[in-house]
Structure formats: C-alpha cells, structure tokens
C-alpha cells in the first residue's frame, strides 16, 4: 500500500503555480520531465570588500587556498506510466501513475499532479495519484517533481474525456434515416441472433467526437412491449413517428413478425406475426402499407395494409428468396426486388398495381438493391457478393462502383466488405451511401463517385482501421525509427484476409497510429504487402526479439506456424504442412494447435493442442512432444495429471520452469488454469470451479504472467460483464481487478455486480479476444473484436483508456 511522505517539504520549500486541467489542447503531451532553464552565472568582478583575497589577488579562505567549486545539481526527472499521454477515457476521473529519479542520487521529496501530492512507499521511485477529475474534452495534467536540494522539474500529459459510445454493434442488418427526432441519426436493426436478444439502435450522424455514437431504442427485456428476437430490417414511418421493424423470429418457421416501435415512448406493438422466413421490408408511405419479402414456405412478396391490419397480407408476386425490396420515390406503384434463389439470382422490376415482375439483370450472388436518387428512376445500386454495381434499369447493364469484382480487381480505397446486409442512400447527399456489414459489425460510408469506403465512427489514431482485432503482442527492439509499439493481428477471416498492424505507443499525438506490416493494404487495395501464404484461420501470435512474428494458422491437421517478416511483410511456414502437403520440420505432426508461447532463452516455441504440448525449434521447425495426455491411452502419456482439452492461451513461467495454460470453457465456469512442468510434462490444476476462492472464470480467453505479484491476469470475456481476473499462483484464489465481478451472490447477470477500475466498463457487447502485459509499465493491452478497439488497462488501479481504434 502507498503511504504519503514529504508533505511538510512541500509546504516548506515548494511554492509553484500549477495549470489546472481543462478544455483546450495545451501542454506538450510529453510524459517525460522537462528541465527548467538553468540560471546564468554572474559575470561581474567580485567587489573589493567582497571577501578575503590572497596575495595574488585570488579569492580564498584566508590561508592561501582556493575554495572548491560548488557541485552542480541536476534536476530530478519524472515519467508517466499510466495513462498514456494522448489516450481517451470515458471516466470523469483517472488515476495517474509513474516513476521519478534524480541523476545526482538526491532524494525525491515530492511529486504532484495538478497540485495533488502523489502517494508512494519507496521514496517516489514509483508514485501514484489515485484520482484526478477530468472535465469533458482534452485535459492537460501538469506535474512537478522536486529533489531534496530544491531542484524542480515539470512534466505533463494530455487525456481526452469523451462520452460513452454506447453498445457495440453485433450484426447490423437494416438501416433507416431519421431526421425528425432531434439530430439526424441512422436507425439500425441489430440482429444478435446467437443469443436471441436483438435490438433497435440509433447512430448519431453529426460530425464531431460523437459521430457514430450508439444508443438503444429498444431491446429484449426492457419492458417496452413485445420483445425482439432477430430484427433484420427497419423502415421509418415518419407520419406516425415510428419505426417498422422486421423480426426474423426464432429458427422455426412461422415466428416472423412486423413490430412497430414508437420513437417517442419506445413502446413496441405487434402488427403482424406468422411470417415464415422474412427477409426484407419496405414502407409505402403513399398507400400506408408495408411490403414484406417472405421465403421459406411462403416464397412471396407480400403487402400489408397498415390501416386494416385485421385483413392480413395479400400476395403481390411470387419470389423464391426476396432478400431486398426498394420503392421508387417517384412512383409508389413500382418497386425493385432482388430474388437470390439459386438458379434465379436476379434483379426484378415489380409493378405493384398489376402484380407483375420483369427481370432486369442477373448476378452471381445478389442480395440488396436501392434506387439511385441521382438516376431519376433509371438507375439502381445492387450488391453482388462483396461489391456494389450501378445498374441501368433500362437495359440491365452493370458498372462496378465499389468493392471486388469477379476478376479480383478492387474499386475504391478502404476496407473490403465481408457480408453486406443493407444499403441506404443519404437523403442529404446522393453521392453518399451507408452500408451495414453484419459480419464486420460496422456501418460504413461509401463515396459513390470514387468507391472509397470508411467506417461511420471516430477512430482514435491514424492509419488503417481495425475491424476484428484478435491477437496482440509486444514488438521489441525500439529504436530511433521504430517507436515503442505493439503488433495487432486484425483477423477478418476467409477471403477478406488477416492483416498485421504496428500500433505506436509513443505518448502524444502519435499514440495509437497504425501502420500495415503484412496483408491487405487499404490504401493500395489491389496489393497485398508481403509475399507467401495468406492466412486462413489465425489463432495466436508471438513476436521474437528481432521482430519476427510467429502466428498459428489453420485448423486440425492443416495447422501451421507461419513466420512473418516485420520489414518486408513476407510470410513463410516455419513448422507444419506446406501447400503441397509436405511436412516442414521433423517430429509428430500438429493436429489442431490453438496457442503459442515463446521461450527465447532456449530458441524454441511452445505450441499446445488438445491433449498435447509441443516444443518447436525456432530454426528448423522440428517438433518435440513434451507433455501428452488426452486421457485415452495412459501408455502414451508424457507426464501425469488431467489432460487439457481446449488450450486457449499459454504463458511461460521461466523462473519455475513451467508453462501456465488456460483451458477454455465449453460452458460458463468450466475453464481451468493449469501448469505444465517443462522437465516432466506433469499437468496440475491451479484454479477452477473447485480450486481456489473467488469468482469462477466464466469465459476465459487469455492469460498473462504478472511475475512481480506471483499471479496471472486472465481475460474473462463474460457476455455483458467482461473483466480482468487476477489469479494467485499459490492458492488459485481469484479477484477482479478491472471490469465487473459477479457480485456477492456469485451469479452472472443478477444485478448485484460490482465495477472495478475507472472509466466506462468494457463494452456490454464486447468480444474481448486477447491481452498482452507490458510488465515494465504495468499495463495490460486488450483487444475488443466487437468494437474494433485496443484498450490499455492499468493493472494497479484497473482504470481503462482507449489507445487505438474505435471508442470502446
């Protein structure tokens, strides 16, 4: 525990003016102490009576000797460890922590930040100010450090205090523009289909720090009427100030619904149920009716008279898979419809009065259509796979606008799309198109003229945006041209690729900047940085001292360890099967490795899979089993103890010659922390539901060794209540240091949870994926796959700040 010392010294010898924190961007943002300009020596000749002089006229002490020169005193220095200068927080206060020293070895007598004296228990070698208030905006925190001889140095840092950005999008499907309820916003139907707890959200559209901020208009369990299950479409009924939401329902046919949401009260009312497999929705304001594309056993485009709900629906035209509908604003009796049924896959022009349809053009994989407001009813935009095409409705001709065509050519800069669910033209700017990507969990803005793509949100840091940051590792070897940094693997899966980014950790304006190291280059969209095999299913990442990255890629017996050169971006297989199926490296083959740990001192890499732990030679790729035991054949076991079935994360405890292994949870609370002896292969449970006290780990995903405190830090990705859990390595006892615990009753989501650490909790929809500990700075860096953010967590206070990416 810190104790306060030096307060009398502050009162007796330190008289300074401090600049308080506040709005504005003043201050250097530098976290290292600045030395005051030393006073100039007095050049004047000593006065005649100014002291004793010897016979030669030299000043002396009366005995003919020359007095010693006064010893120079170097000013003390202080540095900030947390928060990183230039980071963001949603908290109204923050803990500040750092170190201090004196070049002359003088005692440090005080450290203050914004006039608040720091606590210390080691003479200010390390110090902390537990809580400083932060007004909204950019705040400059000013500090002073003083030594025993009265020398003073200053230091400063900046932190931006921002609003909580709201819940992350999980699977945005439908879009509608609403300008009638205050500021312009997008209504988004978010289909959290995994849990059956979908929501209707609003995204702010005003430029500024809150661009893309998310707020919930309605969600399951809020008591405002019939619950959503899987909302997949939304339309605005401006005259009634309500949203019409298409809800897919449960998996069984016949559960689909149309639900009205009052935008003033958020009350939800059922308008229609019994839909088989509803896919699309459009609102015809002129005739006050809804058009619904229903598949499954229905295979029809339906019309619902909103003035006569009791009469039910009527069939407009048949359609096998009506995935999208859009009405002609100049002709309410005309609509466009995409039918994605296999062997049909076409765009149709629908006459709503005559109840007939005409095929306009065929596509390989059509999904969404929208009339182009600049086309006067003659142009539309259709998505085909991961691309947008402009379609001439008179002759069916197509022009690629944005994305990847069948030849692999990409039009437009920015991120590639993965799963386009809806598109919507901006009514205030016909050259701008909004796009919902359900897989990448983002809403994008597309410039129709250039094809360029960007995310509808504010990103912290310059460079390519994160979309699915999964793995993170410290990048060693800081130098003049390589600032302290991290490597983040952004894993978008499948054909959209996996990219490696270097993230700058230099305090100040460069904090959080991202540079591509290997993979798809959003600024040069038809290029891949680096040659060699592209990643297919990366699972873990470590970095060697020379900067070479080693990534675990692939599944089952196709799993390999790929080496990635930081300078060139080139990728090559270090160990495992190559493209021809030949094994690189000798020894037993991999079969589903899931986690890695580096043992640089012994030039080897550890790789764990179900029931087996390998040591991999870093030069040859040779594999050696050092622990094996799946509980199936004791005769082949190496080491004793329970088998590990899902080794999600490894940490090397070199001092104790063991690996710490996090075994995943197939059900909440079933995860384990285990040790594996490197000499024996023995496996021992350190903590699980019956070993050690404290909250049971719910969905643990990552483990980091905090050797200084004889503990590990486990990233527990409990849905809605994510946390960092400290586990004592002697007892297995567990305590939450940042995020939510389970509360006194020990039950998840029961309402009595306690929050640890300052700033907003991890996003309620967070998908925390990985963490790495900077032991020297005592900061845990965490990736959130859902919001696309990199978060720094102070492991002493539990405070959380955004370092790079989208607001968390």
UniProtKB/TrEMBL annotation:
Residues 45-73 have a biased composition (Acidic residues). Residues 1-18 form the signal peptide. The keyword Protein transport does not apply. SUPFAM superfamilies: Calcium-dependent phosphotriesterase (SSF63829), YWTD domain (SSF63825). It comes from the Bacteria. The keyword Signal applies. Residues 82-98 have a biased composition (Polar residues). Keywords: Signal. Residues 24-107 are annotated as: Disordered. This is Uncharacterized protein. It comes from Microbulbifer harenosus.
């Amino acid at each position: 525990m810190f104790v306060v010392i030096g307060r009398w010294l502050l009162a007796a010898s330190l008289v300074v003016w401090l600049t308080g924190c506040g709005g504005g961007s003043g201050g250097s943002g530098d976290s290292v102490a600045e030395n005051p300009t030393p006073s100039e020596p007095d050049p004047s000749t000593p006065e005649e009576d100014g002291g004793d002089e010897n016979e030669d006229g030299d000043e002396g002490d009366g005995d003919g000797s020359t007095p010693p020169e006064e010893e120079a005193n170097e000013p003390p220095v202080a540095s900030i460890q947390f928060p990183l200068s230039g980071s963001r927080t949603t908290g109204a206060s923050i803990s500040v922590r750092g170190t201090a020293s004196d070049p002359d070895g003088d005692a440090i007598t005080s450290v203050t930040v914004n006039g608040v004296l720091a606590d210390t228990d080691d003479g200010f070698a390390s110090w902390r100010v537990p809580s400083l208030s932060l007004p909204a905006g950019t705040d400059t925190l000013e500090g002073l450090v003083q030594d025993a001889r009265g020398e003073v140095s200053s230091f400063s840092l900046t932190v931006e205090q921002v609003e909580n950005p709201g819940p992350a999008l999980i699977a945005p499907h439908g879009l509608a523009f609403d300008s009638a309820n205050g500021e312009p916003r997008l209504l988004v139907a978010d289909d959290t289909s995994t849990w059956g707890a979908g929501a209707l959200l609003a995204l702010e559209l005003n430029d500024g720090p809150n661009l893309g901020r998310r707020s919930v208009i309605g969600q399951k369990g809020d008591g405002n009427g019939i619950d959503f299950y899987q909302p997949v479409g939304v339309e605005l009924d401006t005259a009634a100030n309500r949203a019409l939401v298409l809800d897919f329902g449960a998996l069984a046919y016949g559960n689909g619904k149309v639900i009205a949401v009052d935008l003033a009260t958020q009350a939800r009312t059922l308008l229609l149920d019994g839909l088989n497999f509803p896919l699309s929705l459009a609102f015809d304001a002129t005739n006050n009716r809804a058009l619904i594309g229903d598949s499954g056993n229905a295979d029809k485009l339906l019309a619902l008279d909103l003035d006569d709900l009791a009469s039910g629906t009527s069939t407009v035209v048949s359609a096998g898979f009506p995935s999208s509908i859009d009405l002609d604003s100049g002709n309410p009796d005309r609509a466009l419809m995409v039918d994605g049924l296999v062997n049909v896959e076409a765009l149709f022009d629908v006459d709503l009065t005559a109840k007939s349809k005409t095929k306009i053009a065929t596509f390989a994989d059509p999904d969404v259509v929208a009339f182009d407001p600049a086309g006067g009813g003659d142009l539309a935009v259709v998505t085909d796979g991961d691309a947008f095409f402009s379609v001439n409705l008179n002759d069916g001709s197509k022009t690629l606008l944005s994305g990847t065509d069948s030849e692999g050519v990409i039009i437009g800069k920015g991120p590639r799309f993965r799963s386009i669910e809806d598109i919507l033209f901006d009514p205030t700017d016909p050259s701008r198109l909004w796009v919902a990507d359900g897989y990448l969990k983002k809403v994008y803005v597309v410039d129709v003229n250039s094809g360029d793509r960007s995310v509808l949100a504010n990103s912290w840091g310059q460079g390519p945006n994160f979309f699915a940051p999964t793995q993170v590792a410290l990048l060693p070897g800081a130098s003049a041209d390589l600032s302290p940094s991290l490597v983040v693997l952004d894993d978008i899966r499948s054909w959209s690729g996996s990219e490696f980014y270097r993230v700058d950790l230099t305090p100040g304006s460069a904090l959080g900047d991202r540079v591509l190291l290997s993979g798809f280059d959003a600024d040069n969209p038809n290029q891949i940085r680096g040659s060699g095999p592209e990643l297919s299913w990366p699972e873990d990442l470590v970095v060697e001292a020379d900067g070479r990255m080693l990534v675990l890629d692939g599944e089952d017996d196709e799993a390999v360890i790929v080496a990635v050169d930081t300078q060139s971006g080139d990728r090559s297989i270090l160990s495992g099967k190559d493209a021809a199926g030949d094994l690189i490296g000798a020894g037993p083959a991999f079969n589903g490795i899931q986690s890695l740990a580096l043992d640089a001192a012994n030039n080897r890499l550890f790789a764990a899979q179900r029931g087996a732990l390998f040591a991999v030679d870093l030069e040859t790729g040779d594999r050696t089993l050092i622990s094996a035991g799946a509980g199936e054949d004791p005769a082949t076991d190496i080491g004793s103890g329970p088998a590990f079935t899902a080794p999600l994360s490894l940490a090397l405890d070199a001092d104790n010659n063991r690996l710490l292994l996090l075994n995943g949870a197939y059900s909440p609370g079933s995860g384990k922390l285990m040790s594996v002896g490197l000499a024996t292969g023995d496996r021992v449970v350190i903590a699980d539901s019956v070993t050690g006290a404290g909250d049971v780990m719910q969905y643990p995903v990552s483990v980091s060794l905090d050797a200084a405190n004889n503990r590990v830090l486990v990233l527990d990705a409990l849905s809605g209540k994510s946390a960092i859990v400290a586990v004592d390595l002697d007892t297995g006892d567990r305590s939450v240091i940042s995020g939510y615990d389970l509360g006194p009753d020990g039950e998840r989501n029961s309402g009595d949870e306690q929050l640890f650490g300052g700033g907003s909790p991890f996003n309620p929809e967070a998908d925390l994926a990985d963490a790495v500990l900077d032991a020297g700075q005592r900061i845990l860096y965490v990736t959130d796959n859902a919001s696309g953010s990199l978060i720094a967590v102070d492991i002493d206070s539990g405070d959380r700040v955004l370092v790079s990416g989208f607001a968390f």
